[in-house]
């Protein structure tokens, strides 16, 4: 891992940030939906 090409990191960094942001927002909505479903069943 000494000869890592930083161009790859520069290209992948915004993609990783966008994917994590989307997963965070979608995950929060999904958790709320599951909680609402479980509360409705009880």
UniProtKB/TrEMBL annotation:
Q: Which domain of life is it from?
A: Bacteria
Lumenal topological segments: 1-7, 27-42
In terms of InterPro entries, this protein maps to:
PSII_PsbY
- What's the short name of a Pfam family annotated to this entry? PsbY
Main location (coarse class): membrane
Stated membrane topology is: Single-pass membrane protein
Name the keywords, alphabetized: Membrane, Photosynthesis, Photosystem II, Thylakoid, Transmembrane, Transmembrane helix
Report the locations given in the UniProt record. Cellular thylakoid membrane; Membrane
Where does the record place a coiled coil? none
Query: Any stretches that span the bilayer, and where are they?
Result: 6-31
- What's this protein's family per the entry? Belongs to the PsbY family.
Function field:
Loosely associated component of the core of photosystem II (PSII). PSII is a light-driven water plastoquinone oxidoreductase, using light energy to abstract electrons from H(2)O, generating a proton gradient subsequently used for ATP formation.
- Quaternary structure annotation from Swiss-Prot or TrEMBL: PSII is composed of 1 copy each of membrane proteins PsbA, PsbB, PsbC, PsbD, PsbE, PsbF, PsbH, PsbI, PsbJ, PsbK, PsbL, PsbM, PsbT, PsbX, PsbY, PsbZ, Psb30/Ycf12, peripheral proteins PsbO, CyanoQ (PsbQ), PsbU, PsbV and a large number of cofactors. It forms dimeric complexes.
Could you tell me which NCBIfam families the record lists for this protein? PRK13240.1
Protein name per UniProt:
Photosystem II reaction center protein Y
As recorded in Swiss-Prot or TrEMBL, the protein's gene is named psbY
């Amino acid at each position: 891992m000494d000869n890592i090409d930083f161009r790859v990191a520069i290209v992948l960094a915004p993609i990783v940030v966008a994917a994590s942001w989307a997963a965070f927002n979608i995950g929060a909505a999904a958790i709320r939906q599951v909680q609402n479903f479980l509360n409705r069943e009880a």
